[in-house]
Automatic annotation (TrEMBL):
InterPro entries: GATase_2_dom, Ntn_hydrolases_N, PRTase-like, PRTase_dom, PurF
EC assignment: 2.4.2.14
Source organism (scientific name): Chitinophaga nivalis
Recorded family membership: In the C-terminal section; belongs to the purine/pyrimidine phosphoribosyltransferase family.
Name of the molecule in the record: Amidophosphoribosyltransferase
Taxonomy of the source species: Bacteria, Pseudomonadati, Bacteroidota, Chitinophagia, Chitinophagales
Domain Glutamine amidotransferase type-2 positions: 1-245
Pathway given in the UniProt record: Purine metabolism; IMP biosynthesis via de novo pathway; N(1)-(5-phospho-D-ribosyl)glycinamide from 5-phospho-alpha-D-ribose 1-diphosphate: step 1/2
Pfam family, one: GATase_6
Organism superkingdom: Bacteria
Keywords: Glutamine amidotransferase, Glycosyltransferase, Purine biosynthesis, Transferase
Catalytic reaction(s) noted: 5-phospho-beta-D-ribosylamine + L-glutamate + diphosphate = 5-phospho-alpha-D-ribose 1-diphosphate + L-glutamine + H2O
């Protein structure tokens, strides 16, 4: 859990199942916290429980079997989760895992996951669950109720043991979304499952002692000290099903569909210490070096390169490598052109030419602002960054800073650009290792409101500039019509809003929007192209937030809904 802070900082939760308990002894427990240091609080509580027993049995920690009887969270099946809300509020009641308790062991179910479903309402209707005020906006509640419905049915009908595969086939075929989800059943059986497009990442590792699964490979590698190839990818539409006797199987649950693994995982969301992700982020940066050189007219003498911490650091190394390649090529060309005509000093000057890099921006807290809830994000962005003084020659140097994404533009507008401008650069070029984020995500990354996207704001502004605002009304009319005929899923209407403009026009407008009043430097924004993103991350071609092409029917519905919300002035998610 400590190695997956990147996936959620709203809160944390754990659940345990004990095997082979005597009848009447509780076997499933759950604990959650939404405290700022949630993991610390959870395990602090467990430590307190143990210390309480130690008062009477000082030797107890030497006897794990005995401890299991006295401590709620000692068990054989363990589940942990860090929440990043993509639906509902940020309160502790919505932290994972969710649990359904029952007197019959087979009908106890704990679930958690890294996911987002877009058809929760439909699922509540189906399972006849009547969620309360807090849970009605929870896709985990909808997921749990549906799986529990089929679990109960299976328990009623079963002859020899629970058929977990069948339960998963019945329930997960109803879910529209992206997920890596897991469940513990009161019988001591467990499962981990991944969506049919492989949208969310999912990995597992098995040895003689443990069977473990997580959203990221690096977390498993670090915890169990194992090699890259020992941790396997759970393939799309498949589940890892573990029986209470320790036997396990990888089963196909759903027909795998076209692989559309989320590219934003690679660009930003996952931790960058994964072997493959590190390489991909480096390539993303390197791919941008040509465009950047053009933007600075190859003037490396008067340009300083840097990055916006934290996650963009790896892409920065890639950009640097690309620039170094260029510079070295130039050095060789020059030296060759001299023939015999050089001395030590001249040669020294040439080989010592460097790309000028500096640590310009500093992030004081290791919190991710992007995944912080709306109400506290702006303030956090304003206080979290700082700059290094004395790095830029005012009025002479230009600054190039790379970030991994510009989504709402809050980080740049509310903080970074104003601060960088204090250093007096001639020009500030912001480079994004992700392409323009134009459409909502609905599969587990919380970018769901059209009006929030700076790319969308730019398109609207351009429509105004060009006297084409009627396109908005026409698109809205089309959405209403699709809604009336129940066919909102049939096409992505928002594409019409972007269509009249080239990516370069949108980027230029974004730069304008992101330039706060009273700034001395000229601001330019450069984005990764979709083609070079695909080239850098060839296994993660999921790109709906950049292209508007959604892999599931719920996607178009969400983007059209998000657009209608925008037009109607509603500040709500599109799902
Ligand atoms: O355009 P915006 O909506 O402001 O969001 C984009 C910013 O958010 C992310 O950083 P974040 O602070 O979440 O995390 P990091 O420190 O891991 O880079 C990302 O790296 C960008 O800097
Ligand atoms: N990624 C997560 O942490 C869980 C997302 C889930 N949709 C929720 O909002 O609870
Ligand atoms: Mg960042």
């Amino acid at each position: 859990m400590e190695k997956q802070h990147n996936r959620g900082q709203d809160g944390a939760g754990i659940a345990t199942v004990k095997l082979d308990t005597e009848p009447g002894v509780p076997f499933m427990h759950r604990l959650r916290s939404s405290a700022p240091q949630a993991i610390g609080e959870l395990f602090g509580k467990i430590r307190e429980e143990i210390q309480e027993i130690e008062k009477y049995q000082p030797e107890i920690t030497k006897y794990p079997g005995l401890m299991k009887g006295h401590n709620r969270f000692l068990g054989e099946l363990l589940m942990g989760h860090l929440r990043y809300a993509t639906q509902g509020k940020n309160n502790v009641e919505l932290c994972h895992p969710f649990v359904r308790y029952n007197t019959i062991p087979a009908r106890n179910l704990a679930m958690a996951g890294n996911f987002n479903l877009v058809n929760a309402d439909e699922l509540f209707k189906f399972s006849k669950a009547e969620p309360g005020e807090v849970h009605k906006n929870s896709d985990l509640a909808a997921m749990l109720e549906t799986v529990h419905h089929f679990l109960t049915k299976e328990d009623e009908e079963r002859r020899n043991g629970l058929d977990v595969k069948r339960i998963l086939q019945q329930s997960f075929s109803m879910f529209d979304g992206g997920y890596h989800a897991c469940g513990l059943i009161g019988t001591g059986d467990a499962f981990v499952i991944r969506d049919a497009h492989g949208i969310r990442p999912s990995y597992y590792y098995v040895n003689d002692d443990v069977i473990v699964a997580a959203s990221e490979r690096a977390a498993i590698r670090t915890t169990f000290n194992v090699g890259e190839n020992e941790v396997l990818e759970l393939m799309p539409g498949h589940a890892l099903i573990v029986k209470n006797n320790g036997e396990y199987k990888i089963e196909q649950i759903l027909e795998p569909k076209e692989r559309k693994a989320c590219s934003f995982e690679r660009i930003y969301f996952s931790r960058g210490n994964d072997e493959k992700i590190y390489k991909e982020r480096t390539s993303l940066g390197r791919n941008l070096s040509g465009t950047v050189l053009k933007a600075i007219d190859n003037d490396l003498r008067n340009t300083i390169f840097s990055f916006i911490p934290n996650t963009a650091e790896v892409a920065f190394y890639g950009l640097l490598k690309g620039l170094e390649d260029y510079l070295n090529k130039i050095k060789v060309e020059r030296i060759l052109s001299w023939g015999e005509n050089f001395d030590e000093e001249k040669l020294n000057e040439m080989v010592n030419r460097r790309i000028r890099i500096d640590k310009i921006a500093i992030k004081d807290v290791k919190m991710r602002t992007f995944i912080t809830e709306d109400s506290s994000r702006n303030e956090m962005v304003q206080h979290v960054y700082d700059i290094t003084y004395g790095t830029v020659r005012p009025g002479i140097d230009s600054l190039v800073v790379i970030d991994d994404s510009i989504v709402r533009g809050t980080t740049l507008k509310e903080s970074i650009i104003k601060m960088l401008d204090r250093l007096g650069p001639k020009k500030i070029i912001v480079v994004s290792s992700a392409p323009q984020i134009r459409y909502p995500d609905c599969y587990g990354i919380d970018m769901s409101k059209m009006g929030d996207f700076v790319a969308f704001q730019a398109a609207i502004a351009l429509l105004k500039d060009h006297g084409k605002e009627h396109i908005l009304q026409e698109a809205y009319g089309l959405c209403k019509e699709l809604d009336r005929t129940n066919t909102l899923h049939a096409q992505n209407v928002v594409k019409h809003v972007y269509k009249p403009f080239t990516p370069a026009q949108i980027s230029a407008k974004i730069a304008e929007i992101l330039t706060p009043a009273g700034i001395g430097a000229e601001v330019e924004v450069i984005y990764q192209s979709i083609e070079s993103l695909h080239e850098a991350c060839p296994n993660n071609l999921g790109d709906w937030y950049f292209t508007g092409d959604y892999p599931t029917p719920g996607g178009n519905r969400v983007v059209n809904k998000a657009f209608m919300n925008f037009m109607e002035g509603k500040n709500e998610r599109g799902y």
